[in-house]
Amino acid sequence: MRTIRLVAVLLAFLILSPGCLSLFSGEESESELVNCELEPHNPDCEIGGVTEDDCFFNEVFTGDYCRLMTSPENLDYGEESLLLVVGQTIQALTPSFTGDGPQNWLINPRLPEGLNLDLESGVISGVPESESPLTSYTIIGKNVVGSSVYIIDIEILSEPPVNITYFTNEIFCTLSKPCGISSPYNSGGLIENWEVIPALPLGLEILDSGSISGTAQQLGDSNHTVSGSNSGGSAYTDIRIITIHEEPVNLYYSSHFFQWFLGDNIAESPNIEGGEIIDWAIEPPLPDGLIFSQTDGSIIGVPSELHAIREHYVTATNTGGSITTTILISVQDISPTNIRYDPYLLDLTVNEEMSVLSPSWSDGTPESWEIFPNLPQGLTLNPENGEISGTPIYVQDSTNYQIWANNTGGYTETQISISISSLPPDEIYWPESEYVLSSNTSVLIPVTNNGPYIDTWEVSPSLPSGLVILDNGTISGIPDSRTDWNEYTIWANNTGGAVGLSIWIVVHDLRADQNDLLRGMNEADFSGWPSPILPIGKWAFPVAFESSGIPVVSASHVGKGKILGYGHESWVDYTNHPFSLRAVEWVCGENAEVGLAYGAGFDDFENKLQDAGHNVHLSITPSDLTGIDCLLDEFWNGHDDNDNAALVDFMNSGGGVIMGGHAWYWSYSNTDVAHNYPGNKIAKSTGLFVSSDWGYNDVYFQNIPHEYSTISNAIAAVLADRIDGVEMANDDAAVAYSAISDCTGIVTLDYTDFWTPLRHLVNQTGYTVIPYSTLWSSTGYELGADPVADIILRLEDALMFRLPADELPIHPSHVEFPGEVPSNATRITRTVTVNGTQSGLPSNFGYSNPRSSLRMSTGLYAPPGEIITITVDEEVSELGFSILIGAHTDGLWNKEIIKRHSRIYRTWSIENTTTIVANAFGGPIYAYIPAGSSFGEINVTISGAIRAPLFVLGETSDFEWIYSEKENPAPWAELVSNNFIMTVPSSEIRNLNNPSQLMNWWDRALEMEHELYGFEPWPRVERAVFDVQISVGWMHSGYPFMAHDLSVPDVVNYTHMSENGDWGMFHELGHNHQWMPSTLPGTTETSCNFASVYLMEDLVGVEGHGAVDSEQRRNRMESYFSDGSNISNWSVWTALDTYLIIKEEWGWNPITESLSVYYNLSPAEVPSSDDEEFNAWVLHLSNATGYNLAPYHSAWGFPLNENTYAALEHLPVWVEDPLRGEFFSYDAIIRNLDSDDETTSTTDISWETYDNGTNTSLIFYYGTIDMGNQSSGWSSSQNLGDTSVGNHSTTVTGLSWGTTYYGRIQASSDERTVWFGPISWTTDYPLD
Questions:
Q1: Which residues of 504-540 are buried (b: 16+ CB within 10 A; e: fewer)?
Q2: What is the spatial order of strands in the sheet that 497-508 belongs to?
Q3: What are the C-alpha distances in Å from 782 to residues 192, 849, 902, 1123?
Q4: Among candidate residues 1041, 1019, 1159, 1076, the one with its CA nearest the CA of residue 844
Q5: Rounded mean pLDDT of 621-642?
Q6: CB of 1204 within 8 A of CB of 1211?
Q7: What is the DSSP secondary structure assignment for residue 1224, as one 8-state letter?
Q8: pLDDT score at 13
Q9: What are the b/e assignments for 903-919, b being 16+ CB within 10 Å?
């Protein structure tokens, strides 16, 4: 019909058009106009309704009428050319045009794969799939009237490489030796071209794979940028290439010992192998006249000075290392001859000065003079010129003396004779009245005789074996065995008479004491945890060590008595080991009168002591020690000063004391163990110091301690090594190191008997400078290489930590780290206000140092070794806070190579209104507030400090920072936000101009961590301190959080952090958020990564770690589940996979909610065992998600118990978890199995499929006997097929009436079969 209407209209148009009217009439006629108002019913006035169907194909319906369609014009896509990248979705291109829209779209040539042209709208969209060269595409949009054309150029580039990573960024090469590095890891598109700028060192090249190899031909240390590119772009990484010489080896001269004379012509050249030598050195310098060649190490010349035998160290060095050899050199003189004294017969008188007697000689000049025997007392031989002079004071018969004149060329000799007339003996004395000697040690006890000469000396009784009294009354020798205390009378005789004097002598043999105590003993397994008993006195020694190597039983001689100390009080009267009686025998003697201290609890030892032959006295106090030989008491006692003095007097007079006790527990609620612990109040007298450390209770009585575990021996040997040149073997020095270092950290400086020789040692050797080097460098101080040097380092550590402020030196190593203070830096006085209300963290945040004192920044820095004055008001002085100087508090003694001194900080208690403080190394100054304090605001005035760069977000403007604050002279700076503080080298922030932006970013990072772990508000500001070296790892958690200074350039770079983040920083700060009860076994390094994943994804917008990409996760899970999902292997990344699956299903909120539950648990609710922790977590997480996650976690191997399953039965099982069928086959869970509606031959069986498991099918087995879980025994079954979660039922037919039946459901998967039931029912009886 529409066609007919169109034809009619067309004909009408033709007829009405002027050109067509001539077809029907040769005459023109005027149209007759009709007035439709007057003739509304005229046919010409009819108005018909026009619709879209009335329009021609070339017309457009406007809504009211049909108008002629226009051709599309000015087709435009807004882009003349497109540069696209494979795999990146293009922004859809929508065409614009004028005129009527195209009805059809064409393009030539065809668009690249992945792009398409919508044939209805003309829109170009898609994702390019492959590279394509620049191509012009013609797009035609047309309708029936016309068309418009647009040409667009499209080029598709490859997917650019994103990240190039070598396994290391440093390549170490040896000159002329092959070296290189394997291909890098590249994320992103395939790399087509490689470029290195600047060019690689000569001999090295980069291969098509990106690997670098070759043979280095030149020395150097260069940095290079490696770029990998394709048509889509480039990625870059930096490498460092270090090329060094081959290490020199096998350096030697023709001899090890050269003995030359003055005037000899010398030419000696060395032999050496290895790489080219670039430097030769010799220490100490050669004698005058000899030249050491810096070119080839040769020694040439003519010696012109005398030179005693001396070691010289020749060192050959190149970039690959160095080698040193030792040679001995001496230069000798011509021997003197024909020595004469005139007169040579001397007849002298007591107390009359003789005339100076000078010698004469020929040839060489004597350098020294000697005489034998020694001249009579009062006369001296000048060892430099040979003159004899003085006033004789003793009579002597004519005596011949041999005199030698020496030089390096030899000696000559002559003889003189001296006789002296005498007066009666008078004014004879020895320095002391009592002498304590050590066996096998040289002894010299000189006598002083201010009276006449003594002819003979006698002693009664005989001196200890090995000692003799010389003709001059001096006692000397080497006592070879120990003795008890004895009184000796020494007679001095001459022709004028005799006089007798008394002295007391004892000879101790500590080795023999150890043997006496330990002979025949075996290991003891005592009770209780002991404290070390440190034998710090001259006559103290260790007796037995526990398994970790600390002395827990030690003994000492005290005056004429003895003391033995145990590290635990229960060991004193321990009756199950023979040592307790052996100790009594050694201290008290045989059949002794033994006192048991009042209140010590040792009365149960009475019978054992009596059985051993001792007489026992109970309830003895120090105020009355009469009648006993020894006292058994506790170190941790209630004695006052009088009691302690009485005990010391008792021992000095010959009494014995045995004490036991530990100080570690005492130290939990007390301070200053060296002075306040009861047992140490007598330690300066006894030589036994009770440490606040702790040890184990397996005590090795069967081993005789090493000689140098006796501290007095160790100190003497170390002094001999460093001062006298008597070298210790490394093994011996290591024992001495252990013995001394056990003490240096706990024994205070006022124990002068211990510290005086050690301070002398440090003064003689000087302070140790440890050169600065980064973590990756091998430069530093190697612990263990020289144990004696290690001892000195320990002593420096203790002194720098214990010396009063006004005695602290400027330690020279501060120049290396933490850094120098500019010499022109102004010392200022500033009053700072700090927040003294600091709660700290609850102790369950165990990895965060939760109860550590809090550092309150002052913005000030203490110059090394300079006194800083702290002034507070009286009220503040009584609060109980401290001043901390130094930010770097990690100890380094556990390292093999240390990059700085282990302890470069100091804390100073504020107990007075004015306190002087200092740090030998310098450092930032903090008010150090104990956790749990509520002091409010504290005003502290600090004098003598310098300004440090300090930025405080919200207080310091960027303008103030840039133009003032960041240029403050201290070598360390702090960047502070509301939630985070970073302590960094000032050198790293001098160019930082956007601190607000940076610290706002870090502030948000910490906020996100707090939110994630759900403990809010977080009660402290976390700190990160960057150090040249830290105690463990690349970074570690705690307060402060510690990281290496190599990280600083990145963490203070906003652009870097916002684009790349820092997984490690987030990880360690995550450790600080780990609550111990919610940190499941094996997940110490897992749940901290919640923070890393969350911040890398949600703050930075990147994945952040290769271990969390989908392929690695899949590989881990396949490995874990193929091994049987053993929970003992569930840790770190595998454990993180378990959590991430939950996160990917529900987000982080359920994990946060679950963690938050633990913060409010009562002690009784806190899980206490591993199994309890696993079960508790599943309960909390299930409740948070609203799903029963027990099957999911059971699949991972969680040891879940029935209580957990029961507690979660009300929740639906999560049956959509991605493990199902992919990694783990789940068992179905059928519950509420029941029978109902029994008839004579049928019953309805119903059940709920709570968990449909993996590929599970069900069979209902039934019969008149319950055959258990054996399918073969059942008489009947019904296949129920696959199952789904929900309630199900089936009808069992064909049953016998009046019969009891049993039934079970068997659920079978691909891997296992599980059974549910049984149930039973009885069919009805038929109705009569």
A1: ebbbbbbbebbeebbeebeebebeebbbbbbbbbbbb
A2: 434-438, 497-508, 486-494, 456-460
A3: 46, 29, 13, 43
A4: 1076
A5: 95
A6: no
A7: B
A8: 38
A9: bbbbbbebeeeebebbb
Write out the E strands in 408-485.
Answer: 410-421, 428-429, 434-438, 443-445, 448-449, 456-460, 467-469, 475-477
Q: Which amino acid is at 738?
A: S
Q: Given phi > 0 = left and psi -120 to 50 = alpha, else beta, which region is 543?
A: alpha
| pLDDT digit string, tens, across residues 536-550 | 999 999 999 999 999
3-state DSSP of 1258-1272: EEEEEECCCCCCCHH
- How far apart are alpha carbons 291 and 423 in whole angstroms? 62
CB 1134 within 8 A of CB 1117: yes
Place of tokens 């792009």: 115
CA distance 1150 to 1172: 20
Count the Cβ atoms, other than its own, within 10 Å of residue 369. Answer: 20
Residue 100 per-residue DSSP state: S
Across 989-1070, the runs of DSSP E, i.e. the strands, are 1022-1027, 1035-1036, 1041-1044
Length of the chain: 1328
pTM of the model: 0.67
Amino acid type, 1021: V
Q: pLDDT over 70 for what percent of the chain? A: 96
Q: For residue 343, is the peptide bond before it cis, meaning its omega torsion is within 30 degrees of 0?
A: yes
Q: What is the distance in angstroms between the CA of the first residue and the CA of the last residue of the chain?
A: 82
State the pLDDT at residue 85.
87
Residue type at 1229 in one-letter notation: I
* CA pair distance 10, 57, nearest whole angstrom: 13
- In the block, tokens 């070119």 appear at 295
d(CA 396, CA 1011): 98
User: pLDDT category, 38, cuts 50, 70, 90?
Assistant: low
What kind and span of H or E run contains 1207? helix 1202-1207
Model pLDDT, residue 9: 37
Number of other CB atoms surrounding residue 547 within 10 Å:
12
Measured torsion, CA atoms of residues 172, 177, 182, 184, in degrees rounded to the nearest 10: 50
- Counting DSSP H helices and E strands in the chain, the numbers are 25, 80
What residues contact residue 128 under an 8 Å CB cut-off, 6+ apart? 84, 85, 86, 87, 88, 90, 112, 113, 114, 115, 156
State residue 345 phi and psi, 5-degree precision.
-110, 115
Closest CA to 794 of 915, 891, 722: 891
Neighbours of 1153 (CB within 10 A): 16
pLDDT of 713-763, one tens digit each? 999 999 999 999 999 999 999 999 999 999 999 999 999 999 999 999 999
C-alpha span between 664 and 672 (Å, rounded): 12
Q: What's the one-letter identity of residue 443?
A: V
Is residue 284 reached through a cis peptide bond, with omega within 30 degrees of 0 on the bond before it?
Answer: yes
The amino acid at residue 239 is I
Rg (CA), the chain: 49
Instruction: Reply yes or no on whether the pLDDT at 510 is more than 50.
Output: yes
Give the span between the Cα atoms of 453 and 420, in whole angstroms. 8
Distance (Å, whole) CA 600 – CA 597: 6
Mean pLDDT of 1262-1273: 94
Selection from 1193, 1228, 1189 nearest residue 1212 by Cα: 1189
What pLDDT is attached to residue 34?
57
Residue 815: strand pairing partners? none
Mean pLDDT for the stretch of residues 141-151? 90
- Is-contact 798 761, C-beta < 8 A? no
Residue 60 · residue 144 · CB < 8 Å: no
- Which alpha helices (DSSP H) does 916-991 contain, by range? 958-963
What is the 3-class SS of 516-551, one letter each residue?
HHHCCCCCEECCCCCCCEEECCCCEEEEEEECCCCE
Residue 692 burial (CB count, 10 A): 21
